[in-house]
Amino acid sequence: MTSRKLRSLSLVEAIYFGDKEVLAECKKLYDSWKNDGTWIAPNLRESVYTAGIIGGGSEEWQYLLDYLQNSTIPSEKSLLVDVLSESPNTEQLKQFLEYSLDSTKIDPQDKYKVITRVANRPSGHHLARNFLFHNWKTFFG
């Protein structure tokens, strides 16, 4: 594993485990990117986007969702699906699951990833299960 990848993973894990200093620094980078268009190095994008989701609110989540819908780069879209599913807000996770049914919002090939990623969150497990139960015919009908 490269030192850049290890650094990126370490920053993301620090955010997940509540390191306020790392969260604050990455959130500053997120705000600068969102407000001023400041470029983010590819190896820092996951930690910066994660800081926006974990340290932000509905505005940051919606901004990344809009960014996902406008992105044309498959690797960036995959990263954004991962990060958006990390929201601590269950209403956002429910909305993300619902969006997975709409091919104008989430690419059809990514809908299963949305469900899986939400299901992997402690707060999303029951949401994903209920979502699949209520939409069973859509997926398996």
UniProtKB/TrEMBL annotation:
It comes from the Eukaryota. InterPro entries: ERAP1-like_C_dom, Peptidase_M1_aminopeptidases. Gene3D superfamilies: 1.25.50.20. Pfam families: ERAP1_C. Residues 3-138 form the ERAP1-like C-terminal domain. Belongs to the peptidase M1 family. This is Aminopeptidase Ey-like. The lineage of its organism: Eukaryota, Metazoa, Ecdysozoa, Arthropoda, Chelicerata. The gene is LOC111084126.
